[in-house]
Amino acid sequence: MWKLLLALLVAYAGWRLWKDGWGAKPKTRRVAAGEPVDTAAARRLLGVDRAADEATIRSAHRRLMADAHPDRGGSAEDARALNAARDLLLGRVG
To answer: For residue 14, how many other CB atoms are within 10 A of its CB?
Structure first.
């Protein structure tokens, strides 16, 4: 009986890895709808550091929007949060 449970556990873990893309995409913290967006939250959302220049911010935004865009299966809320984070950081950089 324990061998069956172990086999099911291993199969489930493998399925989760496959479903999540084998960990290829870094997970970013989502900004909740009611949460105020500040520069620290925007940096966390885009996955950039304090010293990020305009090109780095735009590159991170493009990479994340590839999955978050509503036309590609993402949600409008995620796309809105990414756009707000980009605009906030570019307004501070530029």
So the answer is: 10
Rg (CA), the chain: 18
DSSP 25: S
How many helices, marked H, and strands, marked E, lie in the chain?
4, 0
Two tokens at 2? 């324990």
Q: Domains for the chain: give ranges and CATH numbers.
A: 31-94 (1.10.287.110)
Yes or no: say if 57 and 48 are a contact pair by the CB < 8 Å rule: yes
| Chain segment 19-34, per-residue pLDDT in tens | 766 655 555 555 555 4
Name the pTM for this structure: 0.58
Contact 45, 28 (CB under 8 A): yes
Kindly give, in sequence order, each residue whose CB lies less than 8 Å from that of residue 45, ignoring residues fewer than 6 positions away.
Answer: 28, 29, 30, 31, 81, 82, 85
